[in-house]
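G.,

No rush on this.
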Amino acid sequence: MRAARRSRATPRTAGFTLIEAMIAIAIMAVLSLIAWRGLDSMSRADTQLRERAEDAARLARALQQIERDLTWRTTTELPSPADAAPPPDDAPAAAGGAPPPLPLPLLPPGMEARRSGQGPFLLELVRAAPAAPGRWQRVQWWLQAGTLYRAAGVAADGYPLPAPQAADRVAVLEGIAFFEMRAWEPEQGWRPLPASGAARTAASGLEVTLGVRADTGPALRYRRVIALD
């Protein structure tokens, strides 16, 4: 009887049972999974923000380069041999013996916008060569297969200026859905380029629009207006 009483009076050893340990391990596993998912979502969001910031920076640099080319453009086109040659004797004359007035182009001298059929829109301009004072070069911008290209020809100090070659082109921006430009004709409004017909006054500004392909939905439009002095 005394031994049985002593056995019942002995305190139970403190510790966790197997079920309690399994429950604790399961709770820790669930908390670890939640924490890992949270960190993974934060990492993905940070990666997406970085990618969008890089895309926005590349887009801004492309628009700045277009604006820089337009800022450095020549105000007077270099004369071509056809322009320098005198008119033929049988050229028609207006009333009073004066030659007929020439149509006024919408774009200023040294700049041309064209599109061949259903081909891509192309902007070509003559600008001062930054690395060669006193020389000029031809610069072209166009969209091909979703990539915006720029090509600059060799700088020269006289006519004819060499046209850019295939090796001169540089892929400036990828993932572009469309590349469009409009010219502002005073008292007439915006006119899409290439313009059809002559203008009453020369354009005083250009609007450059780039469409960037989005993951879902329509392309995002980015627009910049550049004044033509």
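When you get to it, here's the other one too:
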Amino acid sequence: MASFITRRLIAAFFVLLAATFLMYILVALSGDPLQELREGNAPNKIQLMESLTARLNLDVPPVFRYFLWLGGVAGCFIGQCDLGVNVQGLPVLTLLQQAMGSTLQLVTGAQIIAIIVGLIVGITTALRQYSGYDYSVTFASFLFFSLPIFWVAVLLKQYTAIGFNDWLADPQIGIPLLIGISVVSGLLWMSLLGGAPRRRLITLAVATVSTGALLTYFELSNWFTTPSVGIVGVAVTAIATAVGITAISVGIKDSHALRGALVTAGLGIALYYPMTFYVFRGMSLPLFLGLAVGAIVVGGGIGYVLGGRDRWQSARTSAIVSLIVAAVIALDGFLLYWNAYFNSSRVNGRPMATIGSETPNLGGNFWIQGIDTFTHLLLPTIAIILISFASLTRYTRASMLEVMNQDYIRTARSKGLTQRTVVVRHALRNALIPISTVIALDLGALIGGAVITESVFGWSGMGQLFLNGLRAIDPNPVMAFFLITGLLAVVFNLIADLLYASLDPRIRVSS
């Protein structure tokens, strides 16, 4: 293992060295950073040109200038990183740190959601091959895969943000829209659950009526203007989560795991009022993250204690239930401050943001700042999710179909194992082997691909750092962006190889 990693790192070093050299030379020869000053009429034009020449070492040939830049990068290994300065004289390292934080905030959540949803939908479409659900997802995947992300972003701005903000001025659903949404929801659930014709019709009827009743309740109770989850919503969600996660994870017949999940859900329900009236008032980001970790630990502990023979499986199930219940309670905490955010003079009743990463001079506590972050992240996150989800779903479906036709899957079924056991314990692990490469490479390329998304949504991240460097013929910011994306590509390629070895015991990386 160590020798394999060492060989890969050595090869990656020389690849990065050659790539950064070519990139630096291309940027340096793409134009003259002094051209704007030469054509200007500033009285101190000569002094400005001399200052910029000294800052960027423009009096040094590009080849030797590259090695000066490389020497600053080499200092990172001893804690003395120097990526140079930009044309304004600002340290590129400081600009890079700020830009990376903004970009990671944008892409991390989007990619996690895309992976989870893509895997789930890909697996379910493989299990429901040639069904209406399968055809619908296939059509949607190819549609989103074909659309350029800047076009998706523009559509989201127009019909999601602007349209939703206009609707919030008078949030009335109306009978035709109510019927349409209810029927579409019924068709989606019918397609998803499948089964015999009688079961499909029952699913259609129940889902349609339930959706219509829920939307009617929301409208009559003015939920869209004063949204909340409440203790009833938390309780229903907690119990449904406990049953559903147990059924997926270990099977509903595992009484020990079900008991642990239900106890965890009950504890979450019991803590709703203490959390809402006491803990949430002084909430901060460290406390919020600490509570999230605490929820996982407590839930896992309950599952382990009540887990019977399969303690670790029960602990995993209860930990997932605990995290979801905690998320629902946290969501209610955010919704409690929705009106304060919505009626703020800086928001002015149009909460869905179309540009930027925050509302200037908004102020407010942790919850209001969290809502503001969410409203600014929502559209770019959806755009990234749709594009990533489209490819990941197709890869997962193809891999799962290939695995489900293997001999050992037929053997597992012939032994009388349940469908859940066959899929989760036998098929899924092997289906994830090729998917791990796709996910790893997507993660490595995501920051580089966020340039267009950041440009459309006015997000000040690494994409803007890269574009501003190109426009100003400023190699240092461009090279900082290229260095990070190159390192990520190398690291995630290595992670993909290691995941292959961990998922498939036939693969060895030591030889």
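The mean pLDDT is 86. Residues 1-169+372-511 form a domain with the MetI-like fold fold (CATH 1.10.3720.10).

Enjoy the weekend,
O.
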